[in-house]
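The records we work with from here on pair a chain with its fold. Taken together, the tokens spell out the fold as the letters spell out the chain. To see the layout at work, look at the sequence and tokens printed below.
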Amino acid sequence: MRSLNLLGEQPHIDPAGWILSSLLPPVDSTRPVESSSLFEHLYLLTGLCMLLGVAIPADKKAAITSAVLRYQHPDTGFGSPHSTIIETAHALAILGVLGHPVSSTGSRAFLKQCEDLAYGFLAVPGTKPAYLEHVHAGVLACSVLGYYSPVLMQCAEFVGKCCRENGGYIRSVFGGSATLENTYLALDTLDMIGKMSKPRHAARMHQNPLRCCD
């Protein structure tokens, strides 16, 4: 859907019904083993709702908001069984689309725990190394919260170190092959940092509750 949107095209069949029917509160038992985020499916669906202008019924908003908030921990992060930077970013983005005041979560405190001068953001506090998806999630969470982290420039430097000679990006500074997915994460990270680095009044003009689909 986002590809069609970038190309200025519309789907032949309206997907609103399918999207809304799939928009269900997160349940930990349904999470795929390989998933890095309990909220990934819901994050993508709410992104589609915002992209396509699909109105989410009030009762569905309330149920999903309540379910997501149940996965917040005392450290102010989100996740299952513990807080992670990716799940926190996804949870905040979802709550933003649903109209919940994300500042009320106090999750800036968790982001500060994940800040790192070498990598930018860590997957969980105190655990190294970090990878591109963690840096992207940290910057996404900052974008949703409107928090200009002091390690944003370290995030940009980390992304730069992941660039290969062919113009693609790898997952970490330790080597590997460039992939389309990692290249998207890298470029999206740099784009978010660029927008947050603009003067404060200009940054407000670009503020978006779910950065990935603006």
Q: What stands out?
A: The beta strands are 115-116, 120-121. Residues 201-214 have pLDDT under 50 and may be disordered. The longest strand covers residues 115-116. DSSP finds ten helices and two strands in the chain.
